Amino acid sequence: MLPSSAYVSPLAKSMRRFERSVSAFWRLRITGICDLKRSAICCASLKLRGTTRCTFAGGPLQPTIDGLTRWVEQTYSRQLTERPSLHVYVRRLPPDVIARIDDLRGSRDIIEAIRRQFPASAVITSLSHTDELYLSHYNKDRGGDQGLFDKHYDGNLGFVRFVSVVRALIYLQSDTSYTVVFGDSDVRRAFGTYEFGLLDFHRELHWVEGEFNPDDRQRILLKCNYLVTLPDAALMGRAALAANTAVFYVVKAAMEYSKSPRTPAQVFVGFLCNLFRRLNIVHPAVPLVLIGGVLVVLLAAVGYGVSVL
Question: How far is CA 53 from the centre of its chain?
Fold first, then answer.
């Protein structure tokens, strides 16, 4: 537990952001601090001197991470030398590898770090079907994966109440040459090997600062997601789960198709990915309204065409 002197009064900017939040339940922000039990607004303005970082180093799960890193280096040796980033769904990995990842994503360290940010009655559900192994190579070529490094929100359902999606970034290997900037929380983190951080999937604006160097230790991490609901919001939770999963798969497919684009079709899809990413920063409803408007126009055009035949 951090000493009380480690906590500071919220900054004015953070206070305004706090007041705009729909409720205290949704004020989860990136911490990188295992023992922080105060509200997210305190985390946003916390002076980081002397704080404790979330890490598996020196613990019983460090050998698990070492083993996974060796497996990734052997299995994806070619991809580790290539420029585009690589995402692989954890559910598609060999069973023994999944079992080792289960030890990490279901560990008490992560679950308790999430639980401390929410009411004691909150229900935490693993969204394991969306979890990914991620080989991160800094890449800005206007393709689908540029959004991984530019300013972005991971999701676009930040306006949905009564649920939250938490993402855990588990760094199997990292040389700290990249800095992750969490804009809504005014926090910068250069994550190292064995560390993990938490962020609100739909409500934390973030980006990555760095430069690709093939001679550095490559960033290998797990992206693990968790749905957090109140016990009396099961129906809303299931609806949010369906919406989150649908949007996640569509966006992920578009990003993978258009990364480092070579064909006109890939260039166009990459343009759309980056366009919607920027619109999502304005407000998460803007891309949805735009898509809805286009669909209405298309349906109207088709209906008109049929009527005049």
Answer: 18
Beta carbons within 8 Å of 157's beta carbon, 6+ residues apart: 165, 202, 240, 243, 244, 247, 284
The closest alpha carbon to 134, from 100, 89, 191, 92, belongs to 89
Question: In angstroms, rounded to a whole number, what is the distance separating the alpha carbons of residues 216 and 87?
Answer: 20
Query: Would you list the domain boundaries of the chain?
Result: 55-308
Cα dist. 128→85, 180, 221, 223 in Å? 21, 24, 15, 10
Q: What distances in angstroms separate CA 289 from CA 144, 156, 179, one per listed residue?
A: 21, 12, 33
Is 116 strand, coil or helix? coil
Q: How far is CA 204 from CA 26, 31, 88, 221, 277, in A?
A: 11, 11, 23, 19, 13
Q: From the centroid of its chain, how far is CA 8?
A: 27
Q: For residue range 209-260, list pLDDT tens digits in order.
A: 887 777 778 889 999 999 998 887 777 778 888 888 888 898 888 888 888 8
Q: Among residues 182, 152, 146, which one has the least CA distance to residue 279?
A: 152
Q: How far apart are CA 32 and CA 53, in angstroms?
A: 5
What are the tens digits of pLDDT across the range 18-35? 344 433 333 443 333 333
- 264: three-class secondary structure by DSSP: helix
pLDDT digits (tens, 9 = 90+) for 103-155: 999 999 999 988 888 888 888 999 999 999 999 877 777 776 777 888 999 98
- CATH architecture under which domain 55-308 falls: Sandwich (2.60)
Is residue 208 within 8 Å of residue 179, measured between CB atoms?
Answer: yes
CA atoms within 13 A on the CB side of 98: 11
Contact 40, 60 (CB under 8 A): no
**Joined tokens for residue 106:** 């279901």
